[in-house]
Design goal:
The complex is a heterodimer of chains A (279) and B (316).
Chain A: H1 2-36, H2 40-45, H3 59-66, H4 70-101, H5 107-119, H6 126-135, H7 142-165, H8 170-178, H9 183-194, H10 196-212, H11 215-220, H12 229-239, H13 244-277
Chain B: H1 2-15, H2 20-47, E1 50-53, E2 56-59, H3 63-70, H4 72-107, H5 115-127, H6 130-141, H7 147-154, H8 171-183, H9 185-196, H10 200-208, H11 213-240, H12 245-251, H13 264-273, E3 274-275, E4 278-279, H14 282-310
Antiparallel strand pairs in B: 1-2, 3-4
The chains are: A mainly alpha (279), B mainly alpha (316).
């Protein structure tokens, strides 16, 4: 009896708590987006109000797109992120396939070696990475960032993908071998399509830290031509410290791509996590 | 049976002389990872044993570490950064992980409506860049723009408002809590996944024994998700002792006010690159990186060899 009565009350409390925390989580994002569409005076006088016809203004976005080199930063970030993810997925899947499919001497050791980077952050090697990049003439190039992010993303990618590849049926691969497919064809044509959900999970995990990273762009590629969106927005804040319209618009633009990807992949992401990709 | 198996394994290399495709599959990942990650890490550790002596790079043994721990000028900064970093980590363990677990526990209750919406919304801050997080929280907490004071006024707490980020006593706590706000999504997701993996039979059996609600969480679910809590803790540890970006975007490279939010990451940045009138120093930078490496290694080793071994894992 008492249980039946208390259940709705309990559910109400839980919803209340979750709604409260959701508000805490989304409020700052809401504040950024809403104020980026308002005129300067409205940002100060009524920071929490939605833009009305009288306060609506795109002046911030106009400033960002005309004054700063923001389109270029965006392009840099996109190139770095997309190429790094592609390399992480390709190289990671290849290595994961080798580790999960073949028995060879040193397999365990290789797996452990490649997994070291999950726990040890690449940032600690910065001093020597910068030295190496200077020696290779790669400072202030997008290539240096791509190389670093590829190395950074590989360990977790290999770990997650090899867990998944162990679940691909052996019969399928044996059938492929009997049909005379080469090992490369088995990997690219049979196995890769089957681990697509895991690839999506890896792509999201790889993308977030790359897109948002400030450390390596600051150190390896601070030049105007190679600035990423994150570094660009940070510099923008310094440069236009009083132009809040522009800063808020720049930040809103920087949020956009991650959000789009997250919405697309969020189902895959939770499925990837719950099916034991990260244990 | 076992004899033929052994014979089989032994003849494999003879039947297939060299399986080049294994090398081809492994080579790209191995090369990039080794060249860009492992070798620089080793080189950085090596550099921490060298320093400039009369204009030449020379082996100085552990002298850099002695300077870092004992030199009056540098060591004050170092111990301050280390202490702040420990506080930073403790606040994450005390706030971020319990809150993450609580949200995950609520989300995983059977039949909860809008669970997917809550989950996605609460994960959003984790996706944001530090630049956005830093800037917007600076605005919210700023006494000039006045979002925090006016919000606190609504609930009659205006007297409690202070420019937290600007005061040395509260700045570190404020920055830590901003970081907690950003990263609650990660423990939430991992614990949520662990909770979903608990089989229904276990929970049904508990319900038959009259264990429901709170006591079910404490007596049944929590022991079963302990391994995930262990992973979350070690991830928090590694992330915290290598943090830099948030402090840099909120308080700048000097990690003010008066060094009160300085952590190892910002100290490494300033030491390595120099800042304002301080010259960059590669050897001392490498030394701080080496100390960070040892701290992280110690934490990970403690987890792998002590905590994880003692934990009971349940196979379903």
């Amino acid at each position: 009896m008492s249980k039946a009565r208390s259940a709705p009350v309990r559910a109400a409390f839980i919803h209340l708590a979750l709604i409260a925390y959701t508000l805490v989580a989304l409020f700052p994002v809401f504040l950024t987006l809403v104020n980026s569409f308002k005129s300067r005076s409205a940002i100060f006088s009524a920071p929490m109000a939605l833009p009305t016809p009288s306060t609506f203004s795109l002046i911030g976005y106009q400033t960002v797109l005309s004054q700063g080199n923001f389109v270029g930063y965006f392009q840099n970030s996109l190139i770095v992120t997309v190429v790094s993810i592609a390399l992480v997925l390709l190289f990671g899947a290849m290595a994961a396939f080798a580790l999960s499919e073949y028995r060879f001497r040193g397999n365990m050791l290789m797996g452990l070696y490649l997994a070291l980077g999950i726990m040890i952050p690449i940032r600690l090697g910065t001093v020597a990475i910068l030295q190496g990049m200077v020696a290779a003439g790669l400072v202030n190039t997008l290539t240096s960032l791509i190389l670093v992010y590829t190395a950074q993303g590989l360990p977790l990618a290999i770990f997650i993908l090899s867990e998944f590849m162990r679940t691909v049926s052996d019969d399928l691969k044996s059938a492929g071998r009997i049909d005379g497919l080469s090992e490369y064809a088995i990997f690219f044509r049979l196995v890769l399509p089957l681990v697509r959900p895991a690839m999506a999970t890896v792509a999201v995990f790889t993308m977030i830290p790359i897109w948002n990273d400030l450390w390596f762009p600051l150190i390896l590629a601070p030049g105007e031509a190679t600035k990423t969106v994150t570094l660009g927005a940070q510099m923008f804040i310094g440069q236009f410290v009083t132009n809040w319209n522009a800063v808020l618009s720049a930040l809103s633009l920087a949020i956009l791509p991650v959000m789009v990807l997250y919405v697309i992949f969020s189902r895959q992401l939770i499925r990837g996590i719950t099916s034991g990709a990260v244990k | 049976m076992s004899d033929t198996e052994i014979a089989d394994i032994e003849t494999v290399p003879v039947k297939r002389p060299t399986r080049w495709h294994i090398a081809v599959f492994l080579a790209p990942a191995f090369l990039v990872y080794t060249a860009v990650m492992i070798l620089p890490l080793i080189e950085t550790l090596r550099l921490s044993l060298f320093n400039m002596v009369e204009g030449q790079l020379a082996f100085v043994g552990l002298n850099n570490f002695k300077t870092l721990f004992g030199d009056p000028r540098l060591s004050a900064d170092f111990w301050n950064a280390l202490r702040n970093n420990v506080i930073f980590f403790i606040i994450h363990m005390l706030v971020q992980n319990p809150v993450g677990i609580a949200i995950a526990a609520m989300l995983s209750l059977p039949g909860l409506r809008f669970a997917a919406f809550y989950r996605s919304a609460i994960f959003v801050p984790t996706l944001l860049s530090f630049v956005i997080v830093g800037f917007i929280w600076k605005l919210i907490l700023s006494p000039i723009w006045g979002i925090a004071p006016s919000l606190m006024d609504l609930i009659g707490l205006k007297w409690a408002f202070a420019p937290w980020l600007g005061k040395a006593e509260t700045a570190l706590i404020a920055v830590s809590l901003i970081s907690v706000w950003q990263y609650v999504g990660i423990p939430m997701m991992l614990i949520y996944a662990a909770l979903l993996n608990i089989p229904d039979e276990v929970l049904e059996a508990a319900e038959c024994d009259g264990i429901t609600g709170w006591s079910q969480f404490w007596k049944i679910k929590l022991p079963l998700i302990l391994p995930s809590i262990g992973i979350v803790s070690v991830l928090t540890f590694v992330g915290n002792f290598n943090a830099f970006d948030l402090v840099y975007t909120v308080q700048g490279a000097l990690a003010g006010p008066n060094g009160s939010t300085d952590i190892l990451g910002t100290l490494l940045y300033r030491t390595f690159f120099g800042f304002q009138n301080q010259m960059g120093d590669r050897s001392m930078g490498a030394t701080i990186a080496a100390v960070m490496f040892l701290i992280i290694l110690a934490g990970v080793a403690l987890y792998l060899f002590v905590i994880q071994r003692r934990m009971r894992r349940y196979q379903f």
